[in-house]
Amino acid sequence: MAWDFATEPEFQAQLDWMDEFVREEIEPLDFILGHPNDFTDPRRAKAIPPLQEQVKKRGLWACHLGPELGGQGYGQVKLGLMNEILGRAKCAPVIFGCQAPDSGNAEILAHYGTEEQKARYLQPLLDNEICSCYSMTEPQGGADPKVFTCQAELIGDEWVINGEKWFSSNARYASFLIVMAVTDPEAPPYQRMSMFIVPCETPGIEIVRNTAVGYELEGGHAYIRYTDVRIPRDHMLGEPGQGFVVSQTRLGGGRIHHAMRTMGKMQRAFDMMCERALARTTQGEALAQKQLVQAMIADSWIDIQQFRLFVLHTAWKIDKLKDYRAVRADISAVKAQMPKVYHDVYARALQVHGSLGLSTEMPFAAGVLDSFHMGLADGPTEVHKVTVARQLLGHYKPADDPFPDYHLIRREEQALKKYADIIELEVGNA
Ligand SMILES: Cc1cc2nc3c(=O)[nH]c(=O)nc-3n(C[C@H](O)[C@H](O)[C@H](O)COP(=O)(O)OP(=O)(O)OC[C@H]3O[C@@H](n4cnc5c(N)ncnc54)[C@H](O)[C@@H]3O)c2cc1C
User: Fold this and answer.
1) What pTM did the predictor assign?
2) Residue nearest to atom 25 of ligand 1 (CA)
3) CATH architecture of 248-393
């Protein structure tokens, strides 16, 4: 497969427009709006739709989607370059119609929803008239879905859901939840669960509390109790027992898109670190002249470049192979690498800024904490490393001899055999 690192001039022009638009119009919004999905916020109602209109006019709306769903079908490499810009501002993904978790939930609805469900839930979601929530993790375990107990039972023509979910982000703003629940407790673990659309106004849904992570002022990750929540029979997405399969539809894309946005966040911290290193003097010289500070700058740049190339190469492979499963090891490796580089770059930027860097007046401490978000959401780093190792080991076979083929003595024996004629000639000429 050929590869090329150049960006087409027409698309570069779009990126240049985005860069300025995000810098000038969207980054300031992060200071005046609360949560970008809070539709009750009058400031949001005034500020966001006109900006969304500009994005639509420019043909850059919902670019993660194919043309059949109103996107551009740009593919992952172009999306990567776009998301890198969007990662700089909290409100940017909403303004470009590609925010998590709605983007992944839309993919599930597009794949598995009926025409009626698409009209009722998918279309308003794609138009950002509403937002959604993905409700899978449970209090007793997130990384191991085999321990989930929240159950859905078919009674008459309705599914009745009972159980608890934990860290359901955005539930407080959502119009519907996508809920994974056990439908056949006796089935093998990966066929026990099914996926459902649950409208938020359904009686029996109780948000016990909205948990906040360390840097958030307001909690948005819901601890939800479902008590006899009744939904119509046709609100199952996919077939009974297909919950895991359906969940994979959203996760491949979701993980790589987080990584693309993280590239932008890191570049932002890096720019600040460099500027500070040049501006701040101590003991008669700029920080930039201290070799240990130079090391922090060089290490950060190397980390960002390596990560960026890895993300874009993975995106390129997705575009070429058109199958997330074929790129599973790459996506898991990117996902496992992301929290480390994000953490390290923000921690160095914090350090170079000294006390100011640690304060809430700078974004670095929040970034360091947010790196843990990236190491947990959509599966912990450890689980992704296991996936990488398993996938890679699948390409190898165990040797059937205690001295394997690559044992140097055997290699030498093989080489002597292969080039026996040359050696014989040398002996003959001697
Ligand atoms: C900011 C944020 C937003 C989130 N949003 C959502 C959401 O919208 N919807 C949703 O359903 N969930 C959401 N989650 C939950 C997320 O999916 C879980 O946090 C994640 O799956 C891990 O589950 P857990 O927190 O229960 O940790 P646990 O499963 O208890 O794991 C804790 C730790 O144990 C270790 N560990 C776990 N498994 C293994 C293993 N196999 N091998 C080695 N070590 C292991 C890891 O160090 C891991 O971090 C969100 C999480 C965060 C932090």
Assistant:
1) 0.94
2) 142
3) Up-down Bundle (1.20)
